[in-house]
Amino acid sequence: MSLRLRSSGLAYQTQIYMKIIKENHISLKFYYNTIMKELKEFWNLASKTVEKACNILYEQTKKPIEFYEKEPSHYVTDHDKMIQNLIIDMIKENFSDHKIIGEEEDKHLKTSDTGVYWIIDPIDGTNNFIHQFPFFAVSLACMVDGQIVIGIVQNPVTGDRYWARKNIGAFLNKQRINVSKTNSINYGMIAMSVARHGSNYIDMGALAKVLWNTAQATRTMGSAALETCQVASGRFDAFLSSKVKIWDNAAANLIVTEAGGTVTNLVGEEYQFNDEVLVTNGLLHPYFIDLINNYKHNNK
């Protein structure tokens, strides 16, 4: 009899497991411990995989990096594919039935999808990597039945590892982290990503001008995952971005919410994968929602 989490999904399997528990007089404690053991195996694999990928990328930063245009204004390197393939191979070696979503595959995923998924961004901040600017990361998340349960974002150059496990908390290396307590935009450090394709909700360039004149400081760093993690650690107070892909922030969103932050789309609705994103310390969230809604109202 096996209680392993398979790609058929935790919700469906729970029904089966409860039937097994009843018929075989298995204690709920045994069931819980079995599931937690499986999640620990996922965590150990994620930790080892990201560490190996980061070690490889760090060595590559010492050499000239060749790149090419994947699509207009979107550049990629051979290292992106190499690292993604490395991560996929390590996952499949341990859990052959798990599903993979990666930047270099560009598949779509919904929160309603069941099963165990690994969500990979081999290099978040590829342009920074190309120019050897040390603000890029390997991002890896594990999703079970639509819920992210593990997230790791690690900078190969500095060695900083931001990580979280659902309901366990968020950490920078071995230290627990929390969002800031900044409650006024005038004292806020705000990060933004203003993409060329723009926003469905608002002119991001116009919003940037408002924030430049209002916030204490604004930054554009070029890695959605690491910028979100700066909010989680209290260094930034908010991060806004035009449309982001699931691999950009699957891991980072878990980290910031476990650190006490808030994640929605730009108008305060529940965040959906591949949507625009507003990440704050929670205290500043109402300010941004009002700002964006007022802008929309005044620019109809």
Number of domains: 2
Judging by the overall fold, what is the CATH architecture of the largest domain?
2-Layer Sandwich
Listing every helix as H and every strand as E from the N terminus to the C terminus, the arrangement reads: HHEEHEEHEEEEEEHEHEHEEH
Helix content: 25-40%
General form: globular
Describe this structure in words.
- This protein is α+β, with helices and mostly antiparallel strands.
- It has 2 domains: 10-176, 2-Layer Sandwich (Fructose-1,6-Bisphosphatase, Chain A, domain 1), CATH 3.30.540.10; 185-298, D-Maltodextrin-Binding Protein, domain 2 (3-Layer(aba) Sandwich), CATH 3.40.190.80.
- It is built from 8 helices and 14 strands.
- Strand 6 and strand 7 (161-165) form a beta hairpin.
- Helix 2 (28-60) runs antiparallel to helix 3 (78-94) and helix 6 (224-232) packs parallel to helix 7.
List keywords for this structure.
alpha+beta, five-stranded mixed β-sheet, seven-stranded mixed β-sheet, 14 strands, 2 domains, 300 residues, D-Maltodextrin-Binding Protein, domain 2, 23% strand, Fructose-1,6-Bisphosphatase, Chain A, domain 1, single chain
Give a topology summary:
Layout: H1 10-24, H2 28-60, E1 67-71, E2 74-77, H3 78-94, E3 99-102, E4 116-124, H4 126-130, E5 137-144, E6 147-154, E7 161-165, E8 169-172, E9 175-176, E10 189-193, H5 204-214, E11 217-219, H6 224-232, E12 238-241, H7 246-258, E13 262-264, E14 277-280, H8 285-298
Parallel strand pairs: 3-4, 10-11, 10-12
Antiparallel strand pairs: 1-2, 4-5, 5-6, 6-7, 7-8, 8-9, 12-14, 13-14
